[in-house]
Design a protein that fits this description.
The complex is a heterodimer. Chain A is mostly beta strands. Chain A folds into 2 domains: 191 residues, Immunoglobulin-like; 213 residues, tricorn interacting facor f3 domain (Immunoglobulin-like), CATH 2.60.40. A 10-stranded mixed β-sheet of chain A has the order 3-6-5-4-7-2-1-11-14-13. An 8-stranded mixed β-sheet of chain A has the order 21-20-24-17-16-27-30-29, with no helix packed on it. In chain A, strands 8-10-15-12 form a 4-stranded antiparallel β-sheet, with no helix packed on it. The N terminus of chain A is likely disordered. Chain B is mainly α. Among the domains of chain B are: 129 residues, no CATH class; 186 residues, Rossmann fold (3-Layer(aba) Sandwich), CATH 3.40.50. In chain B, 66% of the residues lie in helices and 6% in strands. Chain B has a 5-stranded mixed β-sheet, with helices on both faces. Chain B has a two-stranded antiparallel sheet with strand order 1-2. In chain B, strand 12 and strand 13 form a beta hairpin. Chain B is globular, with a radius of gyration of 31 Å. The N terminus and C terminus of chain B are likely disordered. The chains are: A mainly beta, B mainly alpha. The interface between A and B is medium-sized, with 29 and 33 residues. Chain B: It is found in: Endoplasmic reticulum membrane. Chain B: It comes from Brassica napus (Rape). Chain B: Pfam families: STT3, STT3-PglB_core. Chain B: Its cofactor is Mn(2+); Mg(2+).
Chain lengths: 464, 778
């Protein structure tokens, strides 16, 4: 239920004409309920909106507004239209696109949600919006010692930022523990256990904003992968080789002063509570030849559990990570080709694999995914459910002559919700598979022929 | 091979020779595979990783070479070590190994085989062991024929002494140097046997490669002149000897001088003088032989008296000049390591830094058995075999084994030079023994069945049949290695065509009773089997541990201690890239290679004073140590501590060398202050100096909190001082099993500076400037 971002979204109504906006007053939000989950370092906000068209023309879409501080940390926005009531609810995914508005106040950012069917005058619809914010918990104090636990600030608005009038709204913040140092009071606001409730607020005008700061304890692992390079190498001889290069850091409050192993080992519960030393990667089923190492050799602390639906790799970095500490490592594994490579009806082949980062509850600042196609592949194209930077490269691997085409997909700010399938289409003639074996065979043949010739040729001028 | 081809085709002997050639080639390939694969235990049991200390430096240099190219490499000034002095890597390193691996890497990558530099480095040593086996085959073949050659090659492929230095990951100079050494000797013998200038040139190039690879090249440049001298003295001078020697000295010295680390040492240091002296002698001898050839005996006598008298005068002058030159240098022109070769007690007396390295100690008797095993018993037999008949080549290998036995007795590291000699000798011994035994079996059998008929023909065929009968005999009981050894016997004939006749005569004389031969054969096979078992055991258990990761087998399974890499990884990721790390010099190479941090001293040990400074800091009390480290810009101090898990080679056990080396340069460190009853103790009997020195404090800081008593599992005692605080250092990292502890130097306290400032303000300004000058740290 929770969500996290600072300020948040709004809906706008569009007229039938595509390019001109109707006055924002044509839509209004009857009821908004926002639940922001602050229990990990990935802030998830669930927003339920009941939108009503009070204008005279049908509205095809609406706007969600976010304050500028949130828009840059926004990893993902999803919207669902709810139809039916209570137990018979059905959810219909809606199209959400970033949008530019020329008259945006204070650089607010917008996302445009298109309704499934235009909203007629007087009609109402219920939307479920999920948005995910990264890097939005600010540690305070900025530096802590080994024995302190980690306190963070979360800044948001008590009311939902919206270009529309909101008749009634409430916001809930869910904190990971009952320890809350302080929170801004915007009456009515109260706190019960792990939950802070703001509201209900009645009838707020468009672009209302009421900044609040919540200061609370959060010792969940702030595992941030600064850069992840995943390389998926397709071999038509029967396997996919995946190599993942991680640059991991602890994104929480910086560690200050002494690291005492004796305290870390003997008083684990109170010492280094914000540090983490175990990570979990969810790998595909039927994974094999898994390795876990870094630049200077194997890291011997890992367990692999394989299952039918997924495999789990539980591993530890070489040392526990305290705030600001970094570690790099490489995970590699191999999966059978037939699970992931298919032939499309038009004769092309396509790879169907999961995007994103296999580590659970981890933010990836920069993800580069390289799909290395077999030598001789042509016409690569990638299909993804969201926008990424695409590029083509050439890589030379074992005995390559023309090189392998590499489809490079690059995306910033990736969260676990991005772990969805994507496809890479390409054409490939199986005859290319034989190129390298033939090359080796002919090379050896040549060597033997040469030695045969050498043995039988007598270059002496004088016969002995 | 070419010799084989020149026989008329179709005859049985040609067929036999062709078959033998192919078979021996096949056996050689198998020996190469054996040499390579027996060294892979470390990769299979542990992982594909660089081992120990020096290989990490070589690995780092190779990385630099592959990244920046050869010119950058020659000019490389490394500012990440020996801070603040730095080290000129290009001019102080033997580049053979790194250039070899770098070339292999470059070739592989240019044909699009993307192996990493690390992989290439890890597998360089096993690949070169295969080459070394083949070189041994060639060398022994020149001495005693290809049967002995194959036996020697098989023995060398698995000799434990060589395995200890060339397992996968042991990326050290010796890995390629042993190959270069054997190959140089082979080319020397080949030149000696053929008198070909072509081989002489190749010999000089091989020598050049050896000079590039290892400081042990001085062994070659002393051994070969000794052999030449031996030949001259025993009246075996020949033009072939001249061709084998003179070009080697001239070309070899010129080429050696091209290697930056050798440079003018090739003509200036005493290690090389023997070769020049013999060079002069061989010319004199050559001249004498020439003159003898053109003069009548009478004239020759006159000439001899004339020349000898003049020559003596000239020689005396030259010797006087040389002696004066040599005497003018402080160590008499000999480097410390070489001097300790001649006088085994030299190092421990004068140079503690050489004595502190365990591989520079004399070996114990068990280590001979461990490292060359049954070869030790076969060597005497091989020496005897070399004397029947004594040739130039066999006298060389005899000389080789004698010298290497002496050197190995001085320094355990040089066991490595002994191993090839022992293998060659044992190969010869085994081959001759098999020859005699199978020969007598064949003779007895044929004489029984044929009733002495056609004595001549049967003996002529004897060699061939021996081999096959030997083969069937052994084939049943033994494994692959053995069968390859048998095969060798067969191969020998083509190469030994010349001596076949003399052999036949000999064989008749050496006929032994049938039963005795069979029993002796079986015993020999058992000996070989024992050797193989021992070698495999040594390769698997004794010499494969990479030493940066330790394992222990306990009742609940395998336990891995990966603390070194844990802390190096921590250093590399969580400290500033320009921070300086101080540790005892053992860990210098690893710190620069794995953690990529600047170190104060490393395993190169070229500057004794610098090492002594670190030793002094480690043996000083906290404040003094802080000042020393601070003056060196050190940010972190790394100590290795085995007390928690019982890792014996930790810094407390190395502490005596820190005190000794530190005290050698800085007399205020007195070893006596640390000793109680002549021992370094850290228990309640320890001296106050010991309990207050930095090393003690850094190792045992908060140690008592682990078990409440402070029981040190290496020293098997409770520590003397349990509760204390650090004032000038703070603990920033301790690895999982406490093996590595890293401390940070605390910044100077503000309080003091404030007080000084206040004082300054109160007093006159003139005083303050003086006080600033007086103490730069405040």
């Amino acid at each position: 239920m929770p969500a996290r971002n600072w300020i948040f979204a709004v809906a706008v109504a569009l007229f039938l004409s595509l390019s001109t906006f109707s006055s924002a007053q044509d839509l209004q939000i009857v009821n908004a309920e926002r639940r922001i989950d602050l229990s990990s370092h990935i802030v998830k906000a669930f927003l339920t909106l009941k939108v009503e068209n009070i204008g005279k023309d049908p509205a095809a879409d609406m706007l969600l507004a976010f304050p500028p501080t949130q828009i840059k940390n926004l990893a993902m926005v999803q919207a669902l239209a709810v139809t039916g009531k209570k137990k018979k609810k059905t959810y219909l995914p809606l199209d959400v696109k970033p949008s530019e508005q020329p008259d945006a106040p204070n650089d607010a950012g917008y996302f445009l949600v298109s309704f499934a069917t235009p909203l007629g005058p007087g009609e109402a619809v219920t939307l479920e919006v999920l948005y995910i914010l990264t890097h939005s918990l600010e540690p305070f104090p900025v530096e802590i010692t080994q024995s302190e636990s980690q306190l963070v600030y979360y800044r948001d608005s008590a009311v939902v930022l919206s270009p529309y009038r909101i008749k009634q709204q409430t916001t809930f913040f869910k904190t990971p523990s009952t320890r809350v140092e302080s929170f801004t009071s915007v009456e009515p606001a109260n706190r019960a256990g792990k939950e802070i409730k703001y509201g209900a607020y009645e009838d707020r005008v468009p672009y209302s904003y009421a900044p609040v700061i919540v200061h609370f304890e959060n010792n969940s692992p702030f595992a941030v992968v600064e850069e992840l390079v995943r390389e998926i190498e397709i071999s038509h001889w029967g396997s996919l080789q995946i190599t993942e290069n991680y640059r991991l850091t602890h994104g929480g409050a910086r560690h200050k002063g002494v690291f005492s192993r004796v305290e870390y080992q003997s008083r684990r519960s109170i010492s280094g509570s914000s540090s983490f030393n175990a990570l979990l990667a969810v790998l595909p089923p039927r994974v094999n030849s898994v390795y876990y190492r870094d630049n200077i050799g194997n890291i011997s602390t890992s367990h692999l559990r394989t299952g039918f639906k997924k495999s789990e790799l539980e591993f530890e970095p070489r040392y526990p990570l305290f705030g600001g500490w970094k570690a790099t490592f490489i995970i590699g594994y191999r999966v059978p080709l037939e699970d992931y490579l298919f032939e499309a009806p038009d004769g092309r082949r396509y790879l169907n694999f999961t995007f994103g980062c296999p580590l659970v509850e981890t933010i990836v600042n920069k993800l580069t995914l390289k799909v290395v196609l077999p030598e001789g592949s042509k016409d690569p194209s990638a299909v993804l459910p969201f926008a990424v930077n695409q590029d083509l490269q050439v890589k030379y691997s074992y005995l390559d002559i023309v090189g392998r085409t590499v489809v490079v997909l690059q995306k910033d700010n990736v969260v676990p919700t991005h772990n969805v399938p994507f496809q890479v289409y390409y054409t490939f003639k199986p005859i290319y598979m034989l190129a390298e074996p033939l090359m080796l065979v002919s090379a050896f043949f040549f060597v033997f022929v040469t030695s045969l010739a050498y043995v039988h040729i007598d270059l002496n001028i004088v016969k002995k | 091979m070419a010799a084989v081809e020149s026989l008329p085709p179709g005859t049985p002997s040609a067929m036999r020779n062709a078959f033998g050639t192919v078979l021996s080639a096949l056996i050689l390939v198998l020996i190469g595979v054996l040499a390579f694969s027996i060294r892979l235990f470390s990769v299979i049991k542990y992982e594909s990783v660089i081992h120990e200390f020096d290989p990490y430096f070589n690995y780092r240099v190779t990385q630099f070479l592959s990244k920046n190219g050869i010119y950058e490499f020659w000019n490389w000034f490394d500012d990440r070590t020996w801070y603040p002095l730095g080290r000129v890597i290009g001019g102080t390193v033997y580049p053979g190994l790194t250039l070899t691996a770098g070339t292999i890497w470059w070739v592989l990558n240019s044909i699009n085989i993307p192996l990493s530099v690390e992989t290439v480095c890890v597998f360089t040593a096993p690949v070169f062991s295969a080459f070394a086996s083949w070189a041994t085959y060639l060398l022994t073949k020149e001495v005693k024929g290809s049967g002995a050659g194959l036996a020697a090659a098989a023995l060398l492929a698995m000799v434990p002494s060589y395995i200890s230095r060339s397992v996968a990951g042991s990326y050290d100079n010796e890995a390629v140097a042993i190959f270069a050494l054997i190959f140089t000797f082979y080319l020397y013998i080949k030149t000696l046997n053929t008198g070909s200038l072509f081989y002489a040139t190749l010999n000089a190039i091989a020598y050049f490669y050896m000079v590039c690879s290892w400081g042990g090249y001085t062994f070659i440049i002393n051994l070969i002149p000794m052999h030449v001298l031996l030949c001259i003295v025993t009246g075996r001078y020949s033009p072939r000897l001249y061709i084998a020697y003179a070009p080697l000295v001239v070309l070899g010295t010129l080429l050696a001088a091209l290697v930056p680390v050798v440079g003018f040492n090739a003509v200036l240091t005493s290690e090389h003088f023997a070769s020049f002296l013999v060079f002069i002698i061989i010319h004199v001898v050559a001249l004498v032989y020439y003159i003898k050839g053109i003069l009548t005996p009478k004239m020759f006598k006159v000439a001899v008296t004339l020349v000898v008298s003049i020559g003596l005068v000239v020689c005396l002058i030259v010797v006087a000049v040389l002696v004066a030159l040599v005497a003018s240098s402080p160590t008499g022109g000999w480097s410390g390591r070489s001097l300790s070769l001649l006088d085994p007690t030299y190092a421990s007396k004068y140079i503690p830094i050489i004595a502190s390295v365990s591989e520079h100690q004399p070996p114990t008797w068990p280590s001979y058995f461990m490292d060359i095993n049954v070869l030790a018993f076969l060597v005497p037999a091989g020496i005897i075999a070399c004397f029947s008949p004594l040739s130039d080549a066999s006298s060389f290998v005899v000389l080789y084994i004698v010298m290497s036995v002496y050197f190995s007795g001085v320094m355990v590291r040089l066991m490595l030079v002994l191993a090839p000699a022992a293998c060659i000798m044992s190969g010869i011994a085994l081959s001759q023994a098999f020859d005699v035994f199978t020969g007598s079996i064949k003779y007895q059998l044929s004489s029984k069945s044929k009733d002495n008929a056609e004595d001549n023909t049967s003996t002529k065929n004897a060699p061939k049949d021996d081999a096959s009968s030997g083969k069937t005999d052994k084939g049943e009981e033994v494994s692959k290695e053995r069968s390859s050894k048998k095969g060798k016997k067969k191969e020998r004939e083509p190469a030994e065509k010349l001596s076949v006749k003399s052999k036949i005569v000999k064989k008749k004389a050496l006929v032994l009773p049938l039963e005795a031969s069979i029993v002796a054969l079986l015993l020999l096979i058992m000996l070989g089997a024992f050797y193989v078992i021992h070698c495999v055991w040594a390769a698997a258990e004794a010499y494969s541990a990479p030493s940066i990761v330790l394992t222990s087998q306990s009742h609940d399974g395998l336990h891995v201690f990966d603390d070194f890499r844990e802390s190096y990884a921590w250093l590399s990721h969580n400290t500033d890239v320009d921070d300086k790390v101080a540790s005892w010099w053992d860990y210098g190479y690893q710190t620069t290679a794995m953690a990529n941090r600047t170190v104060i001293v490393d395993n190169n040990t070229w500057n004794n004073t610098h090492i002594a400074t670190v030793g002094t800091a480690m043996s000083s009390p906290e404040k003094a140590a802080w000042e020393i480290f601070n003056s060196l810009d050190v940010k972190y101090v790394l100590v290795v501590f085995g007390g928690v898990i019982g890792y014996p080679s930790d810094d407390i056990n190395k502490f005596l060398w820190m005190v000794r080396i530190g005290g050698g340069e800085f007399p205020h460190i007195k070893e006596a202050d640390y000793l109680r009853d002549g021992q370094y103790r850290i228990d309640s009997e320890a001296t106050p100096t010991m309990l207050n020195c930095l090393m003690y404090k850094l190792c045992y800081y908060r140690f008592v909190e682990t078990d409440g008593k402070g029981y040190d599992r290496v020293r098997r005692t409770e520590i003397g001082k349990k509760y204390f605080k650090l004032t000038h250092f703070e603990e920033v990292f301790t690895s999982h099993h406490w093996m590595v502890r890293i401390y940070k130097l605390k910044p100077q306290k503000n309080r003091i500076r404030g007080r000084v400032k206040k004082l300054k303000q109160k007093t006159s300004s003139g005083v303050s400037s003086k006080s600033v000058k007086k103490n730069p740290w405040m």
